[in-house]
């Protein structure tokens, strides 16, 4: 079938929850993907920060093949070696002592919210349930995580809203201070906001949040679903701020493509989850955890983190030069390889025009072109994207 046939059939039978572009992607390799008509694209969306190792990374593909021949699924009623190895790998390299596995970012955040409430009620009193999050944040699409998300638009039509969340402007420590009351149990933030428009917090903000949490006996939850797993240039985004959370969530790039989520916590906090308090049939299954273990090892053992830091620096320089040349660019934002161009106008049309020239990019928060290439992206690939953007921005400026 060609693009048009897939698009027509898709519109008939697939729920209309995404405003999809009119191409059907059928194959990927490294930073490139192909559609059903055989057109090639440079992929600077990477499944929205999922394909951090590029498309079909050999280590992950091999691990899936091997695990699929041994066991696809059993149950969390039994110990699962690949799950244990993945938990060991993640806890060896982070602040955390325990990992809970699930299947998506929203589920990881649900687990974080449940754990924060349970721990806080057990240790601080039964009124402790309120979680403060940031305006313009994004934490998922379940009923709990749309309540956690600081954007009204994700809740429209789904009332009644789940109670227990309050929102403050991201980066405003005084507002956070004022929002804390005796029912507050935790603060949940993205170390860099992704969907909110690639927003890096002001210097010192996250440290000040940590101090405020410590002073008030609150847990600090970092949602690293989008910015974890090397996206910002370190394995976890919190490392660059010198701020350690109590709970962290991961998903997206954790297995380099296949679906998985994880919630990591310090031992003392994780202890509030006993048998029966939380669970997931598929969470931590042998196939996904084998894939994730291979993806994690590739990130560190194959030098991809170092490579991504260089690529991020180079890409940023090129974007800064674009910003100097084009009046319609207000600002270059981001960290590592989550980068954004904040425009003076809407970015949606540019995304479509770039696609017509064989470049896949994305727009967040209406006016921010967001770039999330695989961490393996080369200078030549960055140059090609910059060339196309230069031409498109010239038309606006
Ligand atoms: C920061 C953040 N948290 C949570 C989610 C939800 O993840 P999922 O779509 O896997 O449920 C996303 C998705 O974009 C995200 O960017």
Question: Could you walk me through the main structural features you see in this protein, from its secondary elements to its overall organization?
Answer:
The chain is of the alpha/beta class and 397 residues long. It has 2 domains: 148 residues, Aspartate Aminotransferase, domain 1 (Alpha-Beta Complex), CATH 3.90.1150; 244 residues, 3-Layer(aba) Sandwich (Aspartate Aminotransferase, domain 2). The chain contains 13 helices and 15 strands. The strands form 3 sheets. It has a 7-stranded mixed sheet, with helices on both faces. A 4-stranded mixed sheet has the order 1-2-3-13. Strands 11-12-15-14 form a 4-stranded antiparallel sheet, covered by helices on one side. Helix 3 runs antiparallel to helix 10 and helix 4 packs parallel to helix 10. The mean pLDDT is 97. Pyridoxal-5'-phosphate binds next to helix 5.
The whole-number mean of residue pLDDT values reads 97
Low-confidence spans: none
Instruction: Tell the overall outline.
Output: globular
CATH fold title of the largest domain: Aspartate Aminotransferase, domain 2
Q: Structural class, judged by helices and strands?
A: alpha/beta
Number of structural units classed as domains: 2
Ligand catalogue: pyridoxal-5'-phosphate
The top-level CATH class of the largest domain is: Alpha Beta
Tally of helical runs: 13
* Residues in β-strands, percent: 15-25%
**Main sheet properties:** 7 strands, mixed
Span from first to last CA?
A: 40 Å
């Amino acid at each position: 079938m060609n693009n048009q046939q897939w698009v027509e059939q898709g519109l008939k039978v697939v729920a209309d929850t995404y405003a999809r572009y009119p191409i059907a992607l059928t194959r990927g390799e490294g930073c490139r993907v192909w559609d059903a008509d055989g057109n090639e694209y440079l992929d600077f969306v990477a499944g929205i920060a999922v394909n951090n190792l590029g498309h079909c990374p050999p280590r992950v593909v091999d691990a899936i093949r091997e695990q699929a021949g041994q066991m696809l699924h059993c149950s969390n009623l039994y110990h699962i070696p690949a799950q244990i190895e993945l938990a060991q790998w993640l806890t060896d390299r982070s602040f955390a002592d325990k990992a809970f596995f699930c299947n998506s970012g929203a589920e990881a955040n649900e687990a974080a919210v449940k754990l924060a409430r349970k721990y806080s009620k057990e240790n601080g009193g039964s009124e402790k349930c309120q979680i403060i999050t940031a305006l313009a944040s994004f934490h998922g699409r379940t009923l709990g995580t749309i309540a956690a998300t600081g954007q009204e638009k994700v809740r429209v039509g789904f009332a009644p809203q789940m109670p227990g969340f309050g929102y403050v402007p991201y980066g405003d420590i005084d507002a956070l201070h004022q929002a804390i009351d005796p029912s507050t149990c935790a603060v949940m933030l993205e170390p860099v906001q992704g969907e909110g428009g690639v927003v890096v917090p002001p210097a010192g903000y996250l440290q000040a949040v940590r101090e405020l949490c410590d002073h008030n006996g609150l847990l600090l939850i970092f949602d690293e679903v989008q910015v974890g797993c090397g996206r910002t240039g370190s394995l976890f985004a919190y490392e660059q701020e010198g701020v350690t959370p109590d709970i962290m969530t991961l998903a997206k790039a954790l297995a380099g493509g296949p679906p998985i989520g994880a919630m990591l916590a310090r031992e003392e906090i994780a202890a509030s989850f006993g048998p029966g308090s939380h669970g997931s049939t598929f969470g931590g299954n042998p196939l996904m955890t084998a894939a994730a273990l291979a993806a994690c090892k590739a990130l560190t053992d194959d030098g991809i983190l170092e490579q991504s830091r260089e690529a991020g620096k180079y890409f940023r320089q090129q974007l800064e030069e674009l910003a100097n040349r084009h009046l319609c660019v207000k600002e270059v934002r981001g960290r590592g390889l989550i980068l954004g161009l904040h425009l003076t106008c809407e970015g949606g049309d540019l995304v479509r025009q770039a696609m017509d020239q064989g470049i896949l990019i994305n727009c967040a928060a209406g006016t921010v072109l967001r770039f999330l290439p695989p961490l393996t992206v080369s200078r030549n690939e960055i140059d090609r994207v910059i060339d196309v953007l230069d031409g498109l921005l010239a038309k606006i400026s």
